[in-house]
Fold:
Amino acid sequence: EIEKKPPEFTEDDCYATLALNREDNPTESQIRRAYFKVAAQYHPDKNPDPSARDIFEQAAKAYEFLTSPAARHAAGPDPHHLFLMLKAQSILYTRYPEVFEPYKYAGYPMLLSTIELENKDSALFSKELPLLPRACELVYHTVNCSPLNAEELRRAG
Structure:
């Protein structure tokens, strides 16, 4: 979750790439027709211009972005989702330490990445869902649960 990247385009960029007007609120079939028109014009096999490949690839990405709800709403890591995952893992390690004792926690690289990103964030103390306390709590519970985790944490960071 922490490594999710925000979309490369905005909706306006996508509409401009496909030569559509956003205010017209184009349907999916209109978007598809605009994509095919741009793709036919700039396809690398039909257009020898070196920039044609880039335009063709941008049109494909714009089409995917505008027609895929998942691509449209993938706005990077979801803090609420991260918060819930960290809290759930903390609860599990708190309630069932004997179950987890023989195992190493596999998520230290991501956990340490979360801690580093949160630590560098200038809005750390004004966030609705601060992740740093939850991440630190999870580190504590995993290390407290098993000595294997202390060694793994030392190696990871």
